[in-house]
Specification:
Blueprint: E1 2-6, H1 12-22, E2 27-29, H2 34-37, H3 45-51, H4 53-76, E3 83-86, H5 89-102, H6 108-122, E4 131-136, H7 139-149, H8 159-173, E5 188-192, H9 201-218, H10 223-228
Parallel strand pairs: 1-3, 1-4, 2-3, 4-5
Helix pairs in contact: 3-4, 4-5, 4-6, 5-6, 5-8, 7-8
Length: 235
């Protein structure tokens, strides 16, 4: 299992689906964000968070943590060696929840409860991924992309929030600041995704070449493994 990480607007969903189209031996699992984007009481939980983060941060982060732990356990039992998973329990902890705590959206008690639940849920249950694939995008570019896609729940999202998330993605994936011992040795492939790779085949081809090399360096790839992999499916 490989985990694709990156800021909001980095192009994670697009990237992993393009990879699946070009590399037949890969399969993908998109983020289960529908759980916190459902329209309850006219607005999703995510929209509530963007409007009033100090009220909804703990609720949102607890829900996303639960969903991501379930997904991680499910995916680690998948027998496809080249499985790309969008986001993870680790960025949920090191980036999104930690940012909420540092920004004052979660108080000390809520942060302690969150950490206790996190440690309980992952200890002895979640195995480390083979690697992280970090789609690095400047917050300003990500913000413009988000405005173009015009998702209802993202109307209140600010450039300042993206800048904070960018800082903690860097601390988590590149500086490994205070990262969990379980993932300190997990290799990270960083791809500069400031250029539009969806509509630029040359840019995407370069990313694909680096990704294939990353696969080779992180596990022993044999023809038999490719034969065992099913035809690409997006789930």
């Amino acid at each position: 299992m490989y985990i694709v990480e990156g800021n909001i607007g980095a192009g994670k969903s697009t990237f992993i689906q393009l990879v699946a189209e070009h590399l037949s031996y890969t399969s993908v699992a998109l983020e289960s964000s529908h759980s916190w984007k459902r329209q309850d009481h006219a607005q999703s939980l995510l929209a509530h968070f963007y409007q009033k983060p100090d009220r909804w941060a703990y609720t949102l982060e607890t829900l996303t943590m639960t969903c991501r732990v379930k997904q991680h356990i499910h995916e680690q039992n998948n027998n496809r060696p080249f499985r790309l998973v969008e986001r993870s329990i680790y960025s949920g902890y090191h980036v999104f929840a930690y940012n909420s705590y540092q920004s004052g959206y979660m108080n000390d008690v809520e942060w302690k409860v969150y950490k206790d639940w996190f440690n309980f849920l992952i200890t002895g249950r979640c195995t480390q991924p083979l690697g992280f694939i970090y789609l690095k995008v400047n917050p300003e570019i990500a913000f413009e992309r988000i405005k173009k896609r015009d998702h209802l729940e993202e109307k209140k999202l600010t450039i300042e929030y993206l800048q904070q998330l960018d800082k903690y993605h860097e601390m988590f994936l590149r500086k490994q600041h205070n990262v969990l011992d379980d993932i300190k040795d997990v290799p990270v492939l960083t791809l500069d995704c400031n250029q539009d790779f969806e509509n630029n085949p040359e840019v995407f081809a370069k990313h694909l070449d680096r990704l294939k090399a990353f696969f080779t360096n992180t596990q022993r790839f044999t023809p038999a493994m490719q034969e065992k992999s099913d035809t690409t499916r997006v789930r």
